[in-house]
Amino acid sequence: MARLIDAASIIRSKNAGPFTITIDILFREKECAVKAYSYLTPERIASLYKEDPSRIEVILYEPANAVKINIPRKVPAGHPGDTDVYGAQQHAPLLELEIPFGCK
């Protein structure tokens, strides 16, 4: 087992409009991106973010060796209850995620 933070070269999050957060996970090798895509199911992501799996979108983007995850925001960006207007801190639950594969 390895941690996602050790397998990926970049993990970042940002706004994808006022109602969605997008998380980008980039790998050095296509094989790692494909393995991550298979492992990072909407159900697994939903359990980390306490969200309905039907509202989670996981996309494999092979040209960049990347996995993109779209998650609905709990409140719209800039709303008085919003704690991260830019969505730049929302990738944190994924950093320590144990994955059943390693990557270079």
General description of the model:
The protein is 25% helix and 28% strand. The chain is built from 4 helices and 6 strands, in the order βαββααββαβ. It has one domain (2-99). With 104 residues, the protein is α+β, with helices and mostly antiparallel strands. A hairpin with a 4-residue loop joins strand 2 and strand 3. It has a 4-stranded antiparallel sheet with strand order 2-3-5-4. The protein has a two-stranded antiparallel ribbon with strand order 1-6. It is elongated. The model has no long low-confidence stretch (mean pLDDT 95).
What is the fold's blueprint, element by element?
Layout: E1 2-3, H1 4-7, E2 10-15, E3 20-26, H2 30-39, H3 42-49, E4 57-61, E5 66-72, H4 92-95, E6 98-99
Antiparallel strand pairs: 1-6, 2-3, 3-5, 4-5
